[in-house]
Amino acid sequence: SGRPLTGYNAQNESLDRVRVDASGQVLTTNQGVAVADNQNSLRASLRGPTLLEDFILREKITHFDHERIPERVVHARGSAAHGFFECYQDLSDLTRASIFSEPGKRTPVFVRFSTVAGERGSADTVRDVRGFAVKFYTDAGNWDLVGNNIPVFFIQDAMKFPDLVHALKPEPHHAMPQASSAHDTFWDFVSLMPESTHMLMWIMSDRAIPRSYRMMQGFGVHTFRLVNAQQESVFCKFHWSPLAGTHSLMWDEAVKIAGADPDYHRRDLWESIEAGIYPEYELSLQIFTEEQAQQWSFDILDPTKLVPEELVPLRPVGRMVLNRNPDNFFAETEQVAFCTAHIVPGIDFTNDPLLQGRIHSYVDTQLTRLGGPNFHEIPINAPVSGVYNNQRDGMHRQAIPRGRVSYEPNSLAGGCPFQAGGAGFTSYPEHLAMADKLRGKPERFADHFTQARLFWQSQSQIEQHHIVSAYRFELSRVQTQAVRERVVSLLANVSMDLAQGVANGLGIRVPRAQQVVKPLEIAPEVSESPALSLFA
Ligand code: HEM
């Protein structure tokens, strides 16, 4: 009917329109014709050739031949669940986002957890980042918070993302899947990208082998903006904390489980929900101003940095409960299309150069993965608040817009929506000084080691031991000696204990400083951070 649905069950209700229960029904073709015999093809006599006219056989085989779609270029392996988000308080002083408008308000969500590097059928318990992507079906359109379980990222600029992914995916010549990130190309790349040092500390820690999807944190990673009805804005970092606590596997457990039950996390999520043990996460915000951010030594537009909680404490604002498994893996978990560009009035981007690239990437890849420009109509992707615009046609169009007008301005009656003005999404009118067009990075992007060191120091002795062991294991699988040495020399900027521990395990000396720590793309005016000169 196109009628907007409301309430926290709205998404579930909207899926009712397309749910099919075939039990007790006669088997039909796709044209609805009852099939008399689903066992035998139509043949010219019992021992003769099959007839081309057997449209029933041909339709069945043809559909089967086209069952597969491309897997996601990253985050191919994932598991998802439905649920709701419940807001604790009215946040309208900070944001006009409608999901935060009143205490107790519930918004339907669909959440997909994933690994990053592995293929669709790969094991769950590998050492990797985990995706934590949440689609909020709000009454003002879909908002996707496409996050990870680690609060920082490998690279500072979207320009490097294809390089990063090419380095961590199977090598192009033999395409051998990697059970973990350990192979020459990945370590070669990150050893030449000192900005990845902080993220690598998290990846080599127990955080990268979560015990369960129910027991891991989630982070929006980038700094976002919240904007209220008066067009006042604050910066915001998003954090999810699992009610069950944050827990990891031991490396030995992870390896054994990967062999014995590669679906371990998928099974755990599914079975918990079936058993009524609903995964629950609290959403907290770190809210800060431009003036605060200017005082800090790091840049809030740099996604390799977090905002320490000592500087900005977490403010809990709501909880999310996952209480329903998908009816169908392909229709929902596989076809869901998350996108950082999906924001709603009250939430806005910042100029984080990684985020800016992501805004382009997701829809672009989904045009291929989901076959054309109408994948927003796939039921799992459709907003419950309704879609009305002048876009038309294209492959697989489902909607049947009525009327003759699909353009604006127009003077002919019929079928055309009107723009919302101030009630709609408006970008925060950030003041931008006139500037030169350039490629480069601000100076405060240049310190790659201070937060990596803080992370190392925050770890208990046993956790530090796990980090050293993980580096030893991963680097022991790297065949190129120079790559191993470059990684260890970067670690010396974090902690000599760490570097020495890893070097001992590899039977090498902590190498002298190398000038690899000066990436080509840093603008000439950027000074080296003090940490870089540790070896001087
Ligand atoms: C998935 C691109 C950085 C989280 C994807 C996909 C692409 C992509 C193309 C596949 C989407 C699909 O086929 O539906 C990029 C680019 C990045 C980037 C270009 C940097 C420039 C990040 C970061 C995070 C992240 C920093 C976390 C904050 C995710 C998640 C998914 C994903 C969670 C899986 C979504 C799902 O479950 O379907 N990314 N990504 N990505 N990305 Fe990124």
Automatic annotation (TrEMBL):
Keywords: Heme, Hydrogen peroxide, Iron, Metal-binding, Oxidoreductase, Peroxidase
One MF term in the entry's GO annotations: catalase activity
DNA-binding in keyword set: no
EC supergroup of this enzyme: oxidoreductase
Cofactor: heme
Domain of life: Bacteria
Enzyme Commission designation: 1.11.1.6
Domain annotation Catalase core: ranges: 28-416
Residues forming coiled coils: none
Role noted for this protein: Decomposes hydrogen peroxide into water and oxygen; serves to protect cells from the toxic effects of hydrogen peroxide.
Protein name as catalogued: catalase
Provenance organism: Uliginosibacterium paludis
